[in-house]
Here is the input.
Amino acid sequence: MKSFYLTIVGRDSFIMLNPEKDLKNKHCNSAIFENKEDADKDQNIFKFFNVPVKIIGEKLDRRTKEFKNLKSHHPYFSTMFLPEIKERFDGDKYPLFLKPSFKP
Here is the structure.
């Protein structure tokens, strides 16, 4: 079942689908990995990139006004953001959605 939650990934906040489920490298697009063989590993993608994920609050109902307000301020999470999130988590202090080059 699809469950949406507001989450913090690294230093950025996102609306994420099923964050409580384990997301493995082999479930992701191989383009996000520097070494293409890493895409075949059976490892948690967030541990691989060394980026923490924290669920904020309870399950969101997509039919509510609260969800629509959150959606206007927080992008949906995509694994394609992980290399940039890791880079900023290791050094930069600005959230992804405030960065001028970010296009959700």
The mean pLDDT is 85. The chain is about 20% helix and 20% strand. Strands lie at 4-9, 12-17, 53-60.
